[in-house]
Amino acid sequence: MTNTLPPNNATHIVVKSNYLIEASYRLSLQEQRLILLMVSRIKPEDKGFHIYRIAVKDFNRIVGIKNEASYQRTKELTKKLLERSLQITKDNSILQITWLSSAEYFEGKGYVELSFDPKLKPYLLQLKEFFTKYRLQNVIRLKSSYSIKLYELLKQYENIGRREFTLEQLRHTLGLKDREYPLYANFKQKILSRVLNELNEFTDLSFSMRERKDVRKVVGIVFVISKKRQQQAVVETDCLDNKETLSEKLHEYYCLSPAQARDIIERYDEERIRANLTYVEEKQKQGIIKNIGAYTLKAIEEDYRIQKSRFELDKEQNRQASVEREDKKRLSQERERDYGIFRRNMLETFRKGLSETKFKRIETEVRQEVAEKHGDDNPMQEKLVEIALNHKLAKLAAIPSFEVWSKSGKNVGAPTA
User: Fold this and answer.
1) Residues in the chain with pLDDT < 50?
2) Domains in the chain, please, with CATH?
3) Which of 66, 125, 175, 285 shows its CA 20 to 30 Å from the CA of 277?
4) Distance of alpha carbon 62 from alpha carbon 82, whole angstroms
């Protein structure tokens, strides 16, 4: 089945498995835009990939090809994209794969057809957990492939409000080779600073970064993530785009006149219209509609949509509650993991600031306390000492508890000894 990609893509949704977002790959900006456009056309109910058809003029507009040799450039770009690979790492496997299984250019017809590699199905179709979702419009104006990649990496942690990478992890995930910007100062100037400026200007989130240092060397980056307040204008724009798209659909697929389409959109809410269009589609498949335009008008006006029973509504509510519980559990686990990283880093920084004499004195005190409480011959002696010592150091360093850290929503700086 072929899915034609329309030029209006501002309100399309991109949904990707977090495994795919964390994958290591290198794409140009044009290639990133093209892949994202294809992903945004996947529907939640799709069980398999379509063949995605793109008009060459729309293709060129998306990837920014403007010269007279645009048709040749289209073929060159799709050929190169076929060679692009990515590596997806899971607990028990490493999958090396290309993005596309085929790209077919139709001479004289003005369009190209692209298809995803079938092995990407678990990472793009029927996603129920561990996925990230965002509007295509949040990245379509970005001018760097690094910006798109970092946006996705940080969007995953939007609800947590922060994400930390070692410098090595960040470079690997962005697809940088060892010889590219080996000095941190160059990496920061050429990549990080420019990317953050772009993300703050064009996306729905605000970002800042804090450097994690080992003595004087930068070894990691902490990104702080927050939602922008100016969301109302975006929502209103989306509504306008939705109405325009719905109006086109009523006219082109359901044979309403432009005036009838506008009248329907003004009189009824979008949920009612779309639910009734689904109902009409089912009847059309059954072959019982003679005049689809007249039938569609009557279906919307008299609200033919299939009404759900109380059993179905209760089932949906229970399913939604289950999803929310799982999301809450996942978020809690992610926060606990991030707090563990935060606490270990703070303890390590504090420990390095102590003199060896002072540290030994603290350790001796802890060993005495553990011996008095649990005895000298306890088989768990060393483990108990380790736990008690970390607790003592955390108290001396004034490291906040998990509860305090979670509620503050702030990143506490490293303590001084």
Assistant:
1) 7-10, 231-241, 410-417
2) 1-140 (1.10.10.10), 232-310 (no CATH), 349-417 (no CATH)
3) 125
4) 18
CA distances from 58 to 6, 33, 37, 71, 138 (A): 8, 12, 11, 12, 19
pLDDT of residue 320: 73
Q: For residue 206, what are the contacts with CB-CB under 8 A and spacing of at least 6?
A: 200, 225, 226, 227, 228
* One-letter identity of residue 269: D
Q: And the tokens for 355?
A: 């003199």
For 322, residues 6+ apart whose C-beta sits below 8 A from its C-beta are none
Task: Say how far residue 72 (Cα) sits from the centre of its chain.
Answer: 33
With residue 120 as reference, give the H or E element that holds it: none
What's the CA gap between 349 and 347, in Å, rounded? 5
| pLDDT of the residue at 68 | 52
pLDDT tens digits, one per residue of 363-386: 898 888 888 888 877 788 888 888
Is the dihedral angle over the CA atoms 51, 57, 63, 69 positive or is it negative?
A: positive
**Which residues have C-beta within 8 Å of that of residue 156, sequence separation ≥ 6?**
18, 21, 132, 163
Alpha-carbon 383 to chain mean position? 39
Nearest Cα to 367, choosing from 378, 356, 354? 378
